[in-house]
Design a protein that fits this description.
heterotrimer, B: 445 residues, alpha/beta, D-Maltodextrin-Binding Protein, domain 2, 2 domains, six-stranded mixed beta sheet, three-stranded antiparallel beta sheet, 12% strand, C: 369 residues, mainly alpha, MetI-like fold, globular, disordered N terminus
Chain lengths: 376, 445, 369
């Protein structure tokens, strides 16, 4: 008995550890992006995101001010390197050549030749002495400083502050909610008919659904757009719902039919014997019992439509009135801020915020639905 | 939706009234601008109540800039213009054309797609005489005309030019190390070796661009082509009269490889060339200590420099020099955007006419990032000497050629050429790469 | 059983209430739309407009099923009068078609019609004017990039569904009895919520060829002191690095579906096996897995199909370079340029997946008997 208990607890440990490992493996990439979204472009390229909470020794550039005070036959320029650059932290060394930014120790006077000299105090105050009056360009100062960790909300401000983001958010909801509910409704009826009703050509129709699963979306876009234009729908919200419905249906029917086929036969047949019509059987028995499958498909369809770029691009008109978030981010923001990893990272998080929220709130119902489904 | 649109328009109008005069970037009549051209244009047209939709590739800051130019057109004519920009403008335009509601005007960054669209009947020819006007008023006018012409009909009006034959560097880094700006390609190669001997890395090269990975290398090869072969050979190559695997082209590819495939010459080693994003690539110039000293890229690249970088002070450029021993003059490689229209109407004709006024060029010149071959504009309106110098490279060119990859068919210029270059920098043989591209080209003919 | 009926009755009442509520909302919305003042007000409020369009769209859909059934049962074939019995039978013959009509109308229009149209297009040349038979297919067969893409795609179609299903099954089983199982599940599911564009961005950070940005290279440097390499340029294996991104995304899907199936397994079978002295591993592989085989097939099929459609990851990560080309991204090269070849590639994709489809159809036939 002891033996079994011992094995159990060690097994428990193993399970816990392996789940921890799996979860870590799964979230580390996302955490990296999350941390990066709070850092600015320079920080991202200077040190890994995993070093973000630690202070780092970094090299900076500054330029002396161009306002000089004559002192005898030389000119003296004074100022503070922290004010002339975006650096913060504690100064550790300085230099005048970018290949050796830490050439001189703080507090010493560096002789630059040609009668020029430069000294920098620990608080960043510098004194530059030169025989010639400085021109438009001041003397370059390079220095290394120990910088404390720093996080910024600036990236998010840029992304959320981009013109039309609120409208894009509402437009996305307008696209996704009907595009989630309509295919599920239609598919649920069809799935029930394919699973539990007897009629000719049923097998053929199931085969057709399975076959259509694999049609690449890209293939259908342009012919359908032409069709929509002929019907006078053109590029509109109605068009985008219909397109999402059409594209989402095969999988919806496939998944729901597979679930419904597995429902206990006796409940449905006894209801039919009692005189219930198929419509009643469907709404009273099958629909409530299929709740877990409906809920999970709803989540998937919602995520797909929310993250969709291609369909929205083709079936919605150009311009801000119908701009969805993925498009706003991909075509408007990324184009102009392409190299800015911080902006890209925060844009990615802005766009996944709602899907995550939906998942975490729906998940409770999902679990409840799953538990109900197991009581059979 | 119509209600929504009109209320937005109302809001815009009201905002305009609220800060009257403030919505124009420069008050009419002030500065070195050619206001006469504006006034005579304004007198000529009254398009109140008409509207014009334009789509193009400019987003973000560039969208604000083009909007600031369009504002003068609106002010002068009373028409209402809506410009919308998209990063994937090309596919957007194709889709809109398929749907039967293309914008009235569009800005094409690549002549290849414009030609496809024109042949499919989606575009309308420019007014008669546009070609003659270009020949007369644009430097090297004939080449601009041929750029916008498809099958003997002119569809595209070139406006806003990029110069590609530029090398960016940090002047102070050069001064500190005692390097001189090279005047010849021989000297550039010497400088490259010199930097390596001093323990530095001369070049930052990045070909990464997502699905378009490889395109920066095409500019290199084209520039090398112009520096090793006469322009006629370049034209023959672009038209595929000279095969891609001919010795001339293979040599140009290897000239690029001289820089890009040498681990000592490029930051991160040759392997990093293919994976570094072209937008991140110039960052190496500004690191302390510098990761590289030179970066070859077109006029648009300052957008991707670190924030606060001042052109002419923190960073500067020099002309990517020609071989002294080759006697091919000073060739310049460039690219341009083309305005096209999809309907023949008063408002589109008026807008094309507007683009022919000096003021339409000067307004953007006076802000940033705009070069023009228009000879009537006043170079004094450029805000910095750097930009004036850039424009001089354009107007002083003894040979001016367009980005060849833009002129090639899409499968080559925006496909096989790109991937071929990636294969090349990751170790494949230049001849094999050329042969593969040539094979692809023959397959589409 | 009594309890169950009760809850079903309650949910039916709920269901009816929902239908009435939506019907009412629809009516109110329709009336409101007729009043110009309301329209003017709506014009100013995108939120109201959005809500209205949502109500109209969803309501119209529910309305169809509800109304068509009412019409069938009450008007055309009333279950009353002399022909009551016959009418019920007739109504039941028509009803399946009522149920499946919207779905198959949409399927036919949105998928079958483009497929047929595209197949015809794939027999024409670049411009679409000249019929060239299977010329496009013949050209593809000799193209080396196409051959590479087919090879890679078959790898993808084998590895990604296997990987996702495996990780999904493991995650579903391990988290099942864990106190923090739901949190773990949520975290593993999270990548599902991320768009392909976002996912590519995340993995660019992971794979970056710079020990200061990419965690893979930082790890290599820290543990082995190795120089940084670009994982996406490591020939052949780079395909697997890209596949892992899709596995990372799809594991959540597999886990949610499989976890539901695992919970559906009758406790008695598991308990009986434990009493017989089966080890946990044996219970899992010999008792549990066979019972959820049907669900595993569904998950496997769904992911296989997804693999053959997703072009975004390869397209944004490598653009098909470094020997990582797959068919969907290869097809994208021809889109809008040479529709003849693009559609031909699409049909090759459909061909690859045919075995899976046939298997599914056979499975479905079995279930029906």
């Amino acid at each position: 008995m002891d033996n079994i208990a011992g094995r159990k607890s060690s097994l428990n440990w193993a399970v816990n550890l392996s789940v921890i490992f799996l979860v870590l493996l799964w979230i580390i990439p996302t955490v990296g992006l999350l941390v990066s979204s709070f850092r600015d472009r320079d920080q991202i390229s200077a040190s890994g995101w995993w070093l973000a909470p630690f202070s780092a020794e970094q090299a900076y550039r500054a330029r002396t001010s161009t306002e000089a005070t004559p002192e005898g036959d030389i000119f003296v320029v004074t100022g503070n390197v922290f004010e002339e650059s975006e650096a913060t932290g504690t100064l550790s060394a300085f230099g005048v050549r970018s290949i050796a930014p830490g050439e001189f120790t703080v507090g010493t006077v560096a002789d630059l030749g040609d009668g020029e000299s430069l000294s920098i105090a620990e608080n960043g105050d510098y004194e530059f002495r030169t025989p010639e009056e400085p021109g438009r360009r001041g003397q370059r100062i390079y220095f290394t400083a120990e910088t404390p960790p720093e996080f910024t909300l600036e990236n998010y401000e840029t992304v959320l502050g981009a013109g039309g983001m609120a409208q894009a958010f509402i437009n996305t909801l307008t696209v996704t909610i009907p595009a989630t509910i309509i295919p599920i409704l239609i598919a649920a009826f069809a799935a029930y008919a394919l699973a539990w009703m007897q009629f000719p050509m049923r097998g053929l129709l199931i085969a057709l659904v399975v076959g259509l699963l694999v049609v690449p979306l890209q293939l259908a876009l342009v012919p359908l757009l032409r069709l929509h234009t002929e019907w006078g729908i053109g590029r509109s919200f109605l068009g985008v719902w219909m397109a999402h419905t059409g594209f989402g249906l095969p999988l919806a029917i496939y998944l729901l039919r597979n679930y419904m086929v597995g429902l206990p036969r006796d409940i449905i047949e006894s209801a039919k014997v009692d005189g219930a019509t198929d419509f009643q059987v469907f709404t009273k028995i099958v629909l409530p019992l299929s709740f877990p499958a409906l809920a999970s498909f709803a989540i998937f369809q919602f995520l797909w439509t929310w993250n969709d770029l291609l369909v929205a691009k083709v079936f919605l008109p150009d311009g801000d009135q119908a701009m969805v978030m993925t498009r706003k981010i991909a075509d408007d923001l990324l184009g102009s801020r392409g190299g800015d990893w911080g902006i890209l990272a925060s844009a990615a998080f802005v766009s996944i915020a709602v899907p995550l929220l939906v998942f975490f709130t729906m998940q409770r119902y999902l679990v409840r639905g799953l538990l109900a489904g197991s009581v059979k | 939706m119509k209600h929504l649109a009109s209320t937005t328009a109302m809001a815009v109008l009201l905002a305009g009234v609220a800060n009257a005069g403030g919505h124009l970037a420069f008050a009419p009549g002030e500065g070195d601008f050619n206001w006469d051209s504006y006034n005579s244009f304004a007198e000529q047209y009254d398009l109140s109540g008409q509207s014009l939709s334009i789509t193009g590739p400019w987003t973000g800051q560039d969208k604000d800039l083009v909007d600031s130019v369009i504002a003068y057109f609106e002010e002068a004519t009373g028409a209402e213009v809506e410009y919308s920009g998209s990063d994937s403008f090309e596919s957007d335009f194709v889709i809109a054309a398929e749907a039967g509601n293309p914008p009235q005007m569009a800005v094409f960054p690549q002549p290849g797609l414009m030609a496809d669209m024109a042949r499919q009947g989606n575009l309308v020819a420019l007014p008669d005489g546009t070609g003659d006007w270009l020949r007369e008023n644009y430097a090297a006018g004939e080449s601009w005309v041929s750029l916008g012409t498809v099958d003997d009909t002119m569809y595209g009006f070139p406006y806003k030019i990029d110069v590609k034959s530029l090398v960016w560097y940090v002047p102070e880094a050069f001064e500190e190390a005692g390097y001189e700006v090279p005047e010849t390609l021989e000297a550039l190669k010497e400088l490259t070796d010199q930097i390596v001997a001093d323990g530095g890395t001369p070049w930052c090269i990045g070909l990464g661009s997502g699905a378009a990975t490889g395109w920066p290398a095409t500019d290199w090869v084209e520039d090398m082509m112009l520096r090793t072969q006469p322009p006629e050979t370049y034209d023959a190559w672009v038209a595929n009269e000279l095969p891609f695997d001919s010795p001339e082209v293979v040599n140009a590819i290897e000239e690029f490889g001289y820089f890009a495939r040498n681990d000592d010459y490029v930051s991160g080693g040759a392997e990093a060339v293919a994976s570094t994003d072209f937008r991140d690539s110039p960052g190496g110039l500004f690191e302390v200590p510098p990761q590289c000293y030179m970066h070859k890229q077109a006029t648009f690249i300052p957008t991707f420099f670190p924030e606060g970088t001042e052109l002419g002070l923190d960073v500067d450029f020099f002309y990517f020099p020609a071989y002294e021993g080759e006697d091919l003059g000073q060739p310049v490689l460039g690219a341009g955007t083309l305005f096209v229209r999809t309907e023949e109407s008063d408002v589109t004709a008026a807008f094309l006419d507007f683009l022919q006024t000096p003021i339409a060029h000067e307004l953007w010149m006076a802000q940033s990032g705009f070069l023009t071959p228009y000879t009537e504009v006043n170079p004094d309106v450029f805000p910095t000497d750097t930009q004036r110098a850039l424009n001089e490279i354009l107007t002083n060119a003894t040979t001016f050629r367009f980005d060849g990859s833009d002129l090639m068919p899409g499968e080559i210029g925006a496909g096989a050429f790109w991937t071929g270059m990636v294969d090349y920098v990751t170790g494949e043989d230049a001849e094999a790469v050329g042969a593969a591209i040539q094979e692809r080209w023959e397959a589409i003919q | 059983m009594a309890v169950q009926e009760d809850t079903q009755g309650a949910s039916f009442i709920q269901g009816q209430a929902v239908i009435w509520l939506i019907g009412g909302l629809l009516l109110v919305a329709a009336i409101a739309l007729l009043l110009p003042d309301v329209r003017g007000m709506l014009g100013n409020s995108p939120i109201l407009q959005g809500v209205l369009t949502i109500v109209l769209g969803v309501g119209g859909c529910i309305g169809y099923f509800w109304a068509s059934n009412i019409v069938l049962d009450k008007v055309i074939f009333p279950a009353k009068g002399a022909n009551a019995g016959k009418n019920i039978n007739r109504a039941n013959m028509v009803r399946p078609w009522l149920f499946i009509f919207p779905a198959f109308a949409a399927l036919g229009l949105y998928l079958a019609y483009p497929v047929v149209g595209s197949f015809i297009r794939s027999l024409y040349d670049r411009s679409g004017d000249t019929f060239i038979g299977f010329g496009n297919y013949a050209w593809l067969m000799q193209d080396s990039e196409f051959q590479q893409a087919v090879f890679n795609n078959i790898l993808w179609a084998l590895v990604v569904p296997a990987g996702s299903t495996f990780f999904g099954l493991v995650a579903a089983q391990l988290t099942d009895r864990l106190s923090w199982g739901n949190i773990a599940k949520s975290l593993i599911f999270m990548p599902m919520a991320i768009s392909f564009v976002g996912a590519s961005l995340i993995w660019k950070f992971v794979y970056a060829n710079d020990a200061d940005i990419g965690i893979v290279n930082a790890f290599r440097e820290w543990v082995f002191g190795a120089d940084s390499v670009d994982p996406l340029q490591v020939s052949f294996w780079n395909n697997f690095f890209l596949m892992f991104i899709l596995i990372w995304i799809q594991t959540g899907f597999a886990m949610v579906i499989l976890s539901a199936a695992l919970r559906g397994i009758p406790e008695e079978t598991v308990e009986a096996a434990i009493v017989d002295g089966a080890s946990p591993l044996q219970v899992f592989f010999k008792i549990k897995v066979p019972q959820i085989m049907g669900t595993i097939v569904v998950v496997w099929t769904t992911i296989t199909i997804l693999v053959l459609k997703v072009f975004d990851i390869v397209y944004t990560m490598t653009g098909g370079n470094f020997g990582t080309q797959i068919l969907p991204s290869y097809m994208f090269e021809f889109m809008f340029r040479d529709d003849g070849r693009a559609t031909a590639v699409a049909f090759v994709i459909m061909l690859i997946v045919t075995p899976v489809m046939v298997w599914n159809i056979i499975q479905a036939r079995k279930e029906m008997r």
